[in-house]
Amino acid sequence: AHGASSLISTKLGLKLADYFVTEAGFGTDLGAEKFFNIVCRIGNLRPDAVVLVVSIRALKRHGGRDDLEGVKKGLANLEKHMENISEFGVPFIVALNRFEGDRDEEIAVVEKFCEEKNVPFAVADVYHEGGEGGIELAGKLIDLIHNRKPNFRFLYDLDLPIKEKIETVARKMYGADRVVYTVTAEQDIKLAEKLELDSLPICMAKTQYSLSDDPSLLGRPRGFKITIREIKFSAGAGFLVPLSGRITTMPGLPKTPQAERMDLTEDGEVIFG
User: Fold this and answer.
1) Which domain does 231 fall in, by range?
2) Phi and psi (nearest 5°) for 178?
3) Looking at residue 175, which CATH number applies to its domain?
4) How far is 154 from 60, CA to CA, in rounded Å?
5) Where are the beta strands (DSSP E) in the chain?
6) pLDDT in tens, the chain (273 residues)
7) Domain membership flag for residue 257
8) Are 239 and 201 contacting, i.e. CB atoms less than 8 angstroms apart?
9) Do residue 106 and residue 219 come from a single domain?
10) From residue 37, how far is each of 6, 152, 228, 241 by CA, in Å?
11) 40/141 same-domain check
């Protein structure tokens, strides 16, 4: 799936409200790229702005350390996502999703980084404060929409060969050096061409844990390859799905789903967790 709201809901929302916000699943390399190249293309949509959401714990994960130095090292990953949005010509703001335990000095590092890049920044504390915690972000986003005009563009043309579309995404969005194809993937490409499906957009299936197709490569990896092992045809939906690495097409879930923390009280009446 492309990981964003449906065209029906999006167009309905645009008719009913002044602003419509859609969440593009995971990072710019996945949800945003698919929303721009698939959904916006098919639905003739032109986004006004992007909210690039980041968290301190994600930066620490990509920085490889659970301290201030980890935040600083993790900024390389954020920088790549900034570059990815810029590829589409859409203005963006970085929103720091604040959680309990985030320290002011850690947030200040991210804010300073954005200032140096001339990118708007806001702290979103809706996790603790509800709607009140998002007022700063909403105000800055509206200012961005009214003061910066987008120059929206797609990443690739549909009439390009399948491999060229895949490799454009891999190079520009992931930072890969090259793409390799299994025998199965090569056969799938030939079949897609025979069935005249080669003019469809592509919907890459890739791990959400890394810019590469290897979930262990954190931060901003370089010098890596993307392996396409097969290509699924979603002809009804109108796109091709190249499967990379060891990814499956099941829904993306955390390592420990919340369902595992749910239980019943002793009287069996109330669910908690």
Assistant:
1) 162-244
2) -160, 170
3) 3.10.410.10
4) 32
5) 50-54, 92-97, 121-124, 178-181, 225-234, 239-244, 263-264, 271-272
6) 677 888 899 999 999 999 999 998 889 999 999 999 999 999 999 999 999 999 999 999 999 999 999 999 999 999 999 999 999 999 999 999 999 999 999 999 999 999 999 999 999 999 889 999 999 999 999 999 999 999 999 999 999 999 999 999 999 999 999 999 999 999 999 999 999 999 999 999 999 999 998 999 998 999 999 999 999 999 888 899 999 988 777 666 667 777 787 888 777 776 766
7) no
8) yes
9) no
10) 14, 11, 19, 13
11) yes
The Cα 200–Cα 108 span in angstroms is 44
Given a contact cutoff of 8 angstroms between Cβ atoms, the answer to whether 166 and 204 are in contact is: yes
130 and 180 belong to one structural domain: no
Question: How many structural domains compose the chain?
Answer: 2
**CATH number of the CATH domain containing 85:** 3.40.50.300
Amino acid at position 127, single letter? Y
- Please report, as a single letter, which amino acid is at residue 38: I
Per-residue DSSP letters for 95-143? EEE--TT--HHHHHHHHHHHHHTT--EEEE-HHHHGGGGGHHHHHHHHH
Instruction: Say which amino acid occupies 32.
Output: A
Instruction: Using DSSP bridges, classify how beta strands 178-181 and 121-124 pair: parallel, antiparallel or unpaired.
Output: unpaired
CB contact at 8 A, 110 and 121: yes
Q: Residues with Cβ < 8 Å from 140, sequence gap 6 or more?
A: 93, 120, 122
Q: Is the dihedral of CA 199, 203, 205, 207 positive or negative?
A: positive
User: CA quadruple 129, 135, 138, 144: dihedral positive or negative?
Assistant: negative
Kindly give, in sequence order, each residue whose CB lies less than 8 Å from that of residue 73, ignoring residues fewer than 6 positions away: 62, 63, 64, 65, 219
